[in-house]
Amino acid sequence: MKPPLKRKSALPAKSAAAQPALLPKLAIELGPLLVFFAGNAVGGIYAGTGAFMVATLISLAVAWLLYHKLPVMPLVSGVIVFVFGGLTLYLRDDTFIKLKPTIVYSLFAVLLAGGLIFKKPVLELLFGPVFTLTEEGWRKLSLRWATFFVAMAIVNEIVWRNFSTDAWVSFKAFGFLPLTFLFALAQVPLMQRHGEPPQAETGDPEEEKRA
User: Fold this and answer.
1) Domain ranges of the chain
2) Residue 10 reports pLDDT greater than 50
3) What is this structure's pTM?
C-alpha cells in the first residue's frame, strides 16, 4: 500500500519564519516618522527634518543588524529622505521634504507599472521568496499597489499644498502608515484566491515500488 501523500499548505505564505517579526519591523518603519513628528513639534520643520534624517539612518542600521539586509522600500525611501532632507536644510525651504512622499510613491508606482508592461512583476521579485501566487495574482496585486501609490502621491500633494505644515507632518506620521497597513490587509483575500494550488510531495520512490 502506498504511503499517504504529503501536501504543501494552500496558504500563499511559504513560511512564517521567512517574515520578519512584526514589532521590530513596525519600529523600523514607524520610528523615524514619530521622531519627525516630535522634532517638528519641539523645534519646527527644520529640526524635525534633521531628526528625521538621523532616525532614518539609525533605522536602516538596525534593519541591517537584525536581518543582514536592507528592505528595498525603506532603503529607497531613506535615500530620498537624505537627498530632499538635505536640500530642505541647506536651502531652508521645507518644500523639498514635503515633496519627498510624492516622489517616493510616484517612483514605486512607476516601477510596478513598468514591471507589468514588461511582464516581470516587481512584487514577485521582492516577495517571491515569501509568498507563492499565480501569475494572474502577481499581476492583479501589482496593479492594485500601483494604483494605491498613485492615490497616495495625490493625497500628499493635496495635504501639503492646502494645509499647514503641522497638519501635514501629523498626517505623514499618523496617516500614511495606517492607510498603507489597512490597504495591505485588504489584499489578503486576493492573495488567498490566487495562491498557487497545493503540490503533492511523494514519498521515497524505492518504498513506493516495494509497496
Assistant:
1) 20-197
2) no
3) 0.77
